[in-house]
Structure formats: structure tokens, C-alpha cells
Amino acid sequence: MLSGILIFNQKGENLIFRSFRSDCRPRLADIFRIQVISNPQVRSPILTLGSTTFSHVKHENIYLVAVTKSNANAALVFEFLYRLVMLGRSYFGKFDEEAVKNNFVLIYELLDEILDYGYPQNTETDTLKMYITTEGVRSAIANSATDSSRITMQATGALSWRRSDVKYRKNEAFVDVIEDVNLLMSATGTVLRADVNGQIVMRAYLSGTPECKFGLNDRLLFDGDSAGGSSLGGGGGSGGGAITGNRDGTTKATRAAAGSVTLEDCQFHQCVKLGRFDADRIISFVPPDGEFELMRYRATENVNLPFKVHPIVREVGTTKVEYSVAIKANYSSKLFATNVVIRIPTPLNTAKTTERTSQGRAKYEPEQNNIVWKIARFSGGSEYVLTAEATLTSMTHQKAWSRPPLSLSFSLLMFTSSGLLVRYLKVFEKNNYSSVKWVRYMTRAGSYEIRF
Amino acid sequence: MAMSRIRGAFAVPRKGETFELRSGLVSQYAYERKESIQKTIMAMTLGKDVSSLFPDVLKNIATSDLEQKKLVYLYLMNYAKSHPDLCILAVNTFVQDSEDPNPLIRALAIRTMGCIRVDKMVDYMEEPLRKTLRDESPYVRKTAAICVAKLFDLNPAMCLENGFLEMLQDMIGDPNPMVVANSVTALSEIYHAAPETQALKVTTNTLRKLLMALNECTEWGRVTILTTLAEYKTTEVTESEHICERVAPQFQHANPSVVLAAVKVVFLHMKNVKPELASNYLKKMAPPLVTLVSSAPEVQYVALRNIDLLLQKQPEILNKELRVFFCKYNDPPYVKFQKLEIMVRIANDRNVDQLLAELKEYALEVDMDFVRRAVRAIGQVAIKIESASEKCVNTLLDLINTKVNYVVQEAIVVIKDIFRKYPGYEGIIPTLCKCIDELDEPNARAALIWIVGQYAEKISNAGDILAGFVEGFNEEFSQTQLQILTAVVKLFLKRPEKAQGLVQKVLQAATAENDNPDVRDRAYVYWRLLSNTSDPNATKDIVLSEKPPIVTTIHSLPPALLEQLLTELSTLASVYHKPPEQFVGQGRFGADAVQRAAIEEQIQNARENPLAAAAAAAAVTGSAPPPQSQNNVENLLDIDFDGTAPASAQKEPSGGMSGLEGLAGTPVRVESPAAGAPAGSNNLDDLLGVFGDGGGATAPSSSSGGAGADLMNGFAGLDLSGNGTTSPPPGGSQPKKTNEDIMSLF
């Protein structure tokens, strides 16, 4: 498997060199620096030289490199590198050159723990944080034998993600449904691609070893497996308010209340019992303590697009481009989106721009070749317009403008583009305590692009 | 304070740094010693040689500070080799630690011992390892399990003698899933290093245990177990069904590598189950595969390469998912290129309009490489889907009208391929001829000249056009020269009155003033043919023969290689689309592997051979070739392996990796396929040429035009002549061969 993990800064200085096998020699660091970091031609994340393969990802201003000598599992290698990035971020806040230099001892310690002989071991942040800490000196737990055995039990147990002795005075669970809506619209206004990548993040503050059951308005669950093809009016539209303590969601009532959603695919945190989901689509799990991503899903049918954008862009001769961009909010007037940012590309040889907006502020950002139009608060149903003009310098070498797509970012609370709703979250624990649950919905722009 | 001092170590080394470190290491204050160890490790990372500090670092090994212990161990692992004798001093600590009441320390000790690759240390490992393998803590056991693999690497004999393998095999039944996973990992590592040990033998019993552990262990453990399940070969239908049933839920795992590993298992075991069930699994597989496309770009890239493989085997699985493969504006190039290839693969009558609109959009972007590939993709779609060919041609004409130089050139090359499949587009030739002055790449020039020569009777000013090229004959690339030569001869045969002088001139230039043997040889052959007065039609029959239409310009892997790669899903081999022998150490130049690969190439060749029409038909429908053509294939094999095997063996490692380079011991660079594809396919074409079946006529690469084919056949001729008379030339074995180019050689 992995022969070594290397971390470089942008200049190609080797910050971390941890070899796991004898075939990972120090000079490999030089080879990577020469062949990848100082070679602008490299376009692939995988490079094999002789029988050595370098797989790298770039994060902030560092390169994380995995060295392998065999026909390694490439998907696993990259996924592991990304997991390392995640660990770094959760330990240091930001995982960059600075953090690596300041914490190199800890990083070596982490690498030693999460890889053995090049095989990934437990990479769960919460578990690792129990015995590898930033405090420098080990806190008492890791050094006392009894506590250590408890830690190691957890690090290897079937519930490797949860301590058994969690206690809260007030038992609460917060569920965040966060959807990234992706749109690609053609210049003629047809939707080329619209889909939703959703994630459900849970913050569980529950005592003991709670067994949770989680229900969505998933169409397959409603209709049973038989009616897979039939289409049900799926647009739940705006997600309702927070539901709290919906402990015994009677199926019949909710079935009538909400439309259902077809989930194209779901991925679950490792705590979810996949066998049960596969058999009867019940999401059942023992949650880790604190925040974690319970599931990710994808939906492609009946996607509610929160914003409609109509750009009109005219190139007047070779010296001027005229813009008129209208944007309309397509959700209930009770809701409002925040931080709406519209990036309108300008040609590379733009000299100056003038812009007028009916709401918000627009500014030209030369380094990005964009006019950035920001609207802090965008209430439902309203429509705003920007008109702008870009004056171009004439260039001796006139090259056609590639017209990159116009892109949008926003966040919109209490709205799900897919129409997904949480129907219930039930908690079963042997102490039979009562718990409070909160649900929040949010839709953000994923890659929301409009061609013109 | 401490931080700034540590960071200081990144600065340029000062004089006497080692001295400073040493005095720190032996300081009477614990914190100074620890800090010095940290600095030493830092220096080690920077590549400085701090091995001279070995004894001083070693003194700090006996400590209750776990962090310091880990640092000392890290140092030890790095420099043990340079001071093998001194390592003995550490043994005592290791043995003690392996009996520490704290499981973390026990595990640390056994983990580190395995990494100190010194013979003497190995001698002391036996006892601690035996104990830790039976430790009460699963954390220690899982660490010890891996340690067995480390020991096996160092000293296989000792590992076997002490029965560690058997212990490990028993541990597959361990109650803790992580111990199971690591035992499987270690066993599979040992098994792959030394298959004769039979270390990992999956029986019905172990299979049950593996499937049980699968749902409980960590994500990485799941990958290990799934990989083992994929390698497990069973013929029993019920067993395969059971495996598929238990593995399919893993499609829903959050970790893409688990998903891919699960896809691999189900895909391989699916062959044994009932067809309805299998198609059910195929349906189930599609959504998770699509989800992989929204992961991080590097993971996405691996996934896309794998999807490409799966599609070559099961073209239908992602039929409805065209849109998810649309390129995003900021996708990295390697992802975009791969998405293009996949889109072409899943193109069909229903989605072709959408696809064409999208491809046209890409062709107007700025990244030159991407634009070219987009144009090429349009051509591939045209040849793949007959009903869409007209729309494709119109799209290409639109692109030609943009007058962007490289778009025009690529479009011409692509249109040439379309001509080779569909008649009836001669109407656009005048439009093409208008671009003649803008073409500066040999490929594009050759393509246009081929078109002019091929349709000389329909182009009124063909003579003038060709005359222009003949004028500058000696400045052209040989690829273009060959094409000019052929085109002029064609023109002469079709309209002798127009080209009498021209043909004289070009033959003169090609024979008298040219250094390229291929060009000269071809000119002589034409000359002789033309001066043959006994049968004036013979020349026409040869040069103007009817050419079989091409089947596809989409690159596909030979079936045998594809089968092999499907068993390698999600590994590097599946990313490179190359068998692992080609880029991992052992057996890279193993004669067997290379010959096997060569035979596969050969079979693929034969399938594409226009003469073996049945076989070609089979290639289109994807069914096995009928027995008759199979014979043909075998004949060809016999001929070619009479004498040319060594030559082919040297040529085999395509994609910028020539056998010679590798033998000389220089590092061989294997560029990732997305970036290196054009080079790779050209090499492949060379290979086709070596086998001399005239595969150029159907050469899978659209980049090599007619000129490319000629060049290849040139190689074939050279190669065969080198073989003497023992093996009859392939042309001879295929008397009906009407390909003008290959005939021209004899």
C-alpha cells in the first residue's frame, strides 16, 4: 500500500516526510519537487516514474503527496489524502504551511496513528482527539492504563465513533438539511442540468448509547418498491418551519401532508446500518457525539430553482460590452435569501466599467475579470436588474472572448430545492429520556451557472 | 517561544547545529531534551543527515512521556539501518514496552519494532509478537496483525517457522472487526508477495466471517475486505448471489473508495448470478457511480476512469445520465477530458442533440487542448450514430466558419474520418478547400489532401490545389508528403489530362530530392505501377480500390485487456488503463506478460481488420466473432509470432514507454492517460503497423489520418523484410486485400 506520505509547501520545500516502507527513500522528495511542483506542464494528479507513483492533492498552500510502489488502490489513496486534510482542519482550524510547520510533531504522531505499514487505520477525528491532542503534553488519560484501554476499545470497537459514557442534562439533537443546488443553463434559457447535492448534518447531544431512527419524505419509502416508476407531484416547495419533538410521526398523517421526493442516491456516515437501509429504507444509527454528517444525497427530479437569471450581453464592436442582467427570486415572499452574489464575467481586456443596479451594490474586480453584484437580502418574489457597460482597450492581438458562464452564490433558509422534508427523528435509549429535536433547512448555490 | 525555536530549524543550517542538538539531547532538563529531539526530527525531515546523533537520541528512549517516546521511535525507524549495532540497546525498552499495562504503549512498541529493519532486531521480535497477537486489547491485536506482514517482509522463514501465518489466519475469526480487517490486510499482503504461502485462502467459512465483519469495521477495513472478496473466485451461483446481496448495501457508503470497491465486487460476481438479478444490480450501481462524479476532483478522476472501463463492458448502465458528465467551467483539465470521452461513450439517438449542443459550446472555449478534443468528440459521435451524422457535419461547418485556426484544423481532420464512413457529404468540399491556406499542421494538411485526392473527379480545381502543394513538396512533413504523393497519383488516374505534368514532377521530387525512405519507396512503387503498360487497369484497381468504411473512431481496449482491468477496478491500473505489469516493479518486462499483451493487441487488430468482415461486424455488435474468422485470427497469430515476437515485445509498452528505455534503467515516465492520450494512441498505431494487417484503414485513433496509415504500413514492410523469407508476409496471406496502401508495398 502507501509507502510514504510527504507534505510540501508551494516552493517545494519538504515539510513532512514520513515513510512507512523501506522503499520510500528521501530522494523521492526531490523527484517530486522537480517533476511536479516545478513543472507547470503537469496536468494530472497521478504521476508514475519508473515504478514509483506519486498521487497528490493541493490544499491551501501545501501539497499532500502519497508515494506508492505497487498497483495501489487509487481511489483509496486520494480519499485518504482528503481525510488527512479534514483531520488537519479539525485539529488546526486551517491546514496550511503555517499549521504544518507549527505542529509537525503532532502531524507525525497523527500519521503514525492513522497509517500502519501504509494501511489506513482509524481516521475518526473524535476518537483520535481523545489521545492525540494539541496540548503538547499528554493529558492524564492517555497515560493511565485503564483510560487507555477504554480509548483503544473505542478506537477499534464496532462503535468506533462513540464513547459509551456520554452524559447530558438536556438531551438535544439538531438536524441541518443543507442543499447545494447546481444549475447549468444555456444561453437560450433552457436548463441543461439541474440537480441537488444535499447533506444532512446532525449535532447530537444525547446521553448514553441512543439508537436513532430518521425518516424523510423519501418517495421509495412512501410508495414501496413496487411503484418505482410512477411520478408523484414531488415539489414540496418550501420546507416548512422547524418541527420539534415529532416523536411518533404517524405515517398516514404526514404522507398526506407533504409531497415526496425521489432521492437518486444516498450516502451514509459509517454509523448508519446500511443493511437495514438496503432492505427497508429505514435510516437507523447510533450517532457519534457532537457534530457529524449523517448522510449525503442527490436529487435530480423536480428541482426548485430559487433564482431565475436573464442575462443579455451584447458586444458592441470591439470596444464595448453591454450588460443587462435581471434576477428574480422564485420562492415564497415569506422567505429571504442572504448574501446573494452574482459574478458577471467581463472580457480580459476590460479597461473600465460602469454599472447601475436596482438593488445592492456592484463592483468591478479586475483581478477576477468579473463584475460582482452583491445583494445582502433578497426577499421572495422580488426582481432586480443590473445594467452595466464594460469599455475595452483595443489590443493588437485580438482574441475572441470565451464568455465564461455567469455564476451565482446565495444562501436561503427554510427552503429545500429538492423538496426534502424531515418527517421524524426518533431516539431510543435504555434510560428512556425525552429529547428535543430541531430541524433547519438551508439551500445554497453549488455551481449555479448561466451561460450567455 | 518553543514554536519560534522549532521554526528556526527551517532556516539555513548554522554552523555547529549538530553540536547544539547533541548538547540539548544530553541536557539535564527534560524539556530541553524533548525540544532537541523535536529539532532533530525537523532536521531529519529537511533531509539533513543527523544520524550521528543516534546514541544521544537513543538515551532518551526510556521515558514515560508518550509523545517523546514516539519521536524517539520515529528517529529510530529512520536511522536504524545506519547504526544496526546500537539498535540492540533499544531492544530492552521495546520488550518492556510490549508488556506495559497501557495498551497504547504496547501497540506502539510492536508497531515500531516491525519498522526497524535490522536483522538483530528481528531476532528479538518473536516473543513480543506472539504475546501481542494474543493480547486482550483489540487495539494491540490489530497492530500486531500488521506487524506479521512487516516481519514476513524482513524474514519470511522466521515468520513461517513460528506459525505466525496460522495465528493470523485464526484471527480472521476474531470478534473485533478491525482485527479481522487488519489480519486480512496482512495476509493479503503476504499472499501477494509470496503466493506459494497460500496465506489468504478464502473458504466458505472465512467468507462468512468476512461478510460479517464487513458491516462493522472502519471504512478502510471495508475496502480491504471488499478487495479480498473481489479476488475470491467462485463458481457457485448461490455463493455469488450471497456475496452480491451482502455487498450491495455498501454502495451507499460515504467513502468513495468503499463504493468503488463494492462496485468491483458486485461487477465481478455478477457474472455468476441470474441475468435478471444481474441487470438489477447494474441498475443499482448507476446512481452511486454518478454520485462519485461530484466528489473531489482527484477522486472524481479515478472514478471517471473506472466508469470508462465499466462502460466499455456494459455500455448501457449510464444511458440516462448524460447531463452529470457535462463539464463545469472550472473542472481541472484532466477531469474535463475524461468527461468528454464518457459522454461520447454514452451518446445515443435520444441524447445526441443535447450532447452536440454541449460539445459545440466546449469547442468555443479557450483551452486549446480541450477545444480540440471537443471537436474530435463531435466526429466520434457522427461516426457512432448514423442518424446524427448530418447534424454533426453542420456543427462542424459552423465551427469552421468561426475561423479559429486550431478549431478549423481539427474539424478538417474529423471531417475526413466522416467521409471515410458516410458517402454523400461531397457538397461541403468547397467550404473545406477555402480553408486551405490556414492549415499549418501536418495532420490537417494531410487530411485535406486526402479528401482532395479521394474526390478529385468532383473537384474542378483539384489540379490547381495539388499543384500548390507539389510546389512546396520538400518543405512538407513526410506525413503530408506521402499524402500529396498518393493524391496526385489518384488525380492522374482519374483525370490523366490534368495531372500529367504534376505526377512527373512529384515523383521526381519524391525520389530524387527526398531523404525519407518511406516517401522514396512509395514514389518508386507508384512509378513502377504507372509505367506498367501491360494491364492499364491494374494500377487503377490498386490505387482507386473501394475502401471499406471505418467502424468507429472511439478508442476501445482489447477485450482481454478490458477483462483484466475490470478485475483491477479502482487501482492505478484502472486509472492508466494498462496492466499493472507495465508500471510496477516486478515483472515489468516479463516476457510472458508482454507476449500476452501482444497477443491481445493482435486479436483486437484482427477484429478490426476490414477483411475479416464478419469479425468486424462482431466488433460492432459486441458479440464474439464467429468461428470462421477466429481461424483467420489464429492464422495471423502464427504468422506474426514466427519471427516478429521480439520486435513486438520491444514495441509493446506503448504510451511513451519503449522497452529499450526501460531496459537501460532510466526512469520511465508514464504520463497519466488523459494528458498523454494522443501520444499513446499513436504508439498503438505503430504497433498495428508492426503486425502489418493494414489496421490503418480502421485505426482507432482519429488523429492519424490516411497518411498515418500509410506510414504504418511502411513500418510493416520494413519489419517483414527483416524477417527474411521464413514467414510469408501478411499481405500474401490475405490475397483479397484491397487496401491500396498495403498492396503498394509489394
From TrEMBL, chain A:
Alphabetized CDD domains for the sequence: AP-2_Mu2_Cterm, AP2_Mu_N
Location(s), subcellular: Membrane, Coated pit
Record's keyword annotation contains Cell membrane: no
Alphabetical list of SUPFAM superfamilies matching this protein: Second domain of Mu2 adaptin subunit (ap50) of ap2 adaptor, SNARE-like
Any one cellular-component term (Gene Ontology): clathrin-coated pit
Ranges where the MHD domain occurs: 170-451
One GO BP annotation of this record: intracellular protein transport
Record keywords, A-Z: Coated pit, Endocytosis, Membrane, Protein transport, Transport
Signal peptide (from-to): none
Family: Belongs to the adaptor complexes medium subunit family.
Protein name per UniProt: AP-2 complex subunit MU
Organism: Aspergillus homomorphus (strain CBS 101889)
Lineage per the UniProt record: Eukaryota, Fungi, Dikarya, Ascomycota, Pezizomycotina
UniProtKB/TrEMBL annotation, chain B:
Keyword terms, alphabetized: Membrane, Protein transport, Transport
Domain of life where this protein originates: Eukaryota
Keyword Protein transport in record: yes
Primary residence: membrane
Stretch list, region Disordered: 644-664, 691-746
Subcellular location: Endomembrane system
TM annotation in the entry: none
Any single Pfam family the record assigns to this protein: Adaptin_N
Endpoints of the signal sequence: none
Record-level GO BP terms: intracellular protein transport; vesicle-mediated transport
One GO location term (cellular component): membrane coat
MF term (GO), any: clathrin binding
Domain Clathrin/coatomer adaptor adaptin-like N-terminal per the UniProt entry, residue ranges: 15-533
Key word Protein transport present: yes
Role according to the record: Adaptins are components of the adaptor complexes which link clathrin to receptors in coated vesicles. Clathrin-associated protein complexes are believed to interact with the cytoplasmic tails of membrane proteins, leading to their selection and concentration.
Record-linked PANTHER family: ADAPTOR COMPLEX SUBUNIT BETA FAMILY MEMBER
Family: Belongs to the adaptor complexes large subunit family.
Name recorded for this polypeptide: AP complex subunit beta
Source species of the chain: Aspergillus homomorphus (strain CBS 101889)
